Amino acid sequence: MPNDLIDKLTTQYSRKLPFVAYRKPKEQHVTALFQKDNRLHHLAEFSESGFIFAPFDAQKEIVLLHCDERFEIDSASLNSYPHTEFKSIVDTSEKQFHIDLVKKGIEHIQKNEFQKVVLTRKVEVECTTDPLILFERLLANYQNAFCYLWYHPKIGIWLGATPEILLRGTNQQITTMSLAGTQKFKGNLDPTWGPKELEEQQLVTNYISHALGDKVSDLKIFERETIRAGNLLHLRTKLTADYKKERLGEIVSALHPTPAICGMPMQPTKEFILRNENYQREFYTGYLGELNMKYETRRSSRTRNVENSAYKAINSTTSFFVNLRCMQLQENKALIYVGGGVTKDSDAEKEWEETVAKTNTMLKVLNVD
Length: 369
Hints:
Elements: H1 3-14, E1 19-23, E2 29-34, E3 50-54, E4 63-65, E5 69-74, H2 94-110, E6 116-126, H3 131-141, E7 146-152, E8 156-162, E9 165-170, E10 173-184, H4 195-212, E11 217-221, E12 225-229, E13 232-242, H5 248-255, E14 263-264, H6 266-276, E15 287-300, E16 310-322, E17 326-330, E18 333-342, H7 348-366
Antiparallel strand pairs: 1-2, 1-7, 2-5, 3-4, 3-15, 6-14, 6-18, 7-8, 8-17, 9-10, 9-16, 10-13, 11-13, 12-13, 15-16, 17-18
Helix pairs in contact: 2-7
């Protein structure tokens, strides 16, 4: 990253003042937002403006970072850093615990208590690398993901590279997606998907379509496709609809948490997760992003009058991303969060292997072999 942005982020961090730096998927510029004081603000209503950070548990408060200063730079040229060795501090009993948890989830599905549940785990590794270096590695490796570095002195540091949009709203139209199913990328972008992955992804699509229901108009569901996120492939279905801004809060509440990060139906799977996972997810599988941020665009006019050859338009943009492929930094360690969807066709051992593959996304950023 250019030195001027590094200097601004370093200064803000040294003063223990909140900030977020991020790059949207397939874009070339990094945006940084700075809050001038260290107050912990919470979202009151979705008509406010700023950058929000929402936890997995929708009953808990959403953090709102005020945009007192905005700074943008081109991320086309990125620095490289030498590899550093890290020692894993993962508990050896973790594998068996997760396999048993998945088996328990399958048993509840077989009893028709729910159709799908997303079960996750936390991996701890030693890490003393500067957060800015980690962020730059994310930018260099995950062009198609939403890459971010978020800090608040009263909460801590989170960063990640998530491939999943919760919701994007511009000019009275929203875009969302159902993302589910995972396999390793082996050079083929058109792989064969098994019944477990196809059913899992269809459940998410059906849920989102039903949840939006009477809250939007002109709902369109696009063809299912395979997308790549780093060394993994996923199934994705895009959905678009028209909406009214005053209903944004209702729409977000209906979507979060989706079956892609919780399960279906939502209430019994959420209760199962909170009761059986051996840790608190906090902001993992929550969502984050811009809320009603103003952007100026310049559009060309067809008139020959030079004075009117271009005009400016101010657009209000909302972009929320599900907080996947992320880590939390605490003192000299990084907490990496991963998980997967469990259905009646799931195999507990394979579900464990899927979480291992997803862990590698963040381990590569830490240079852990």
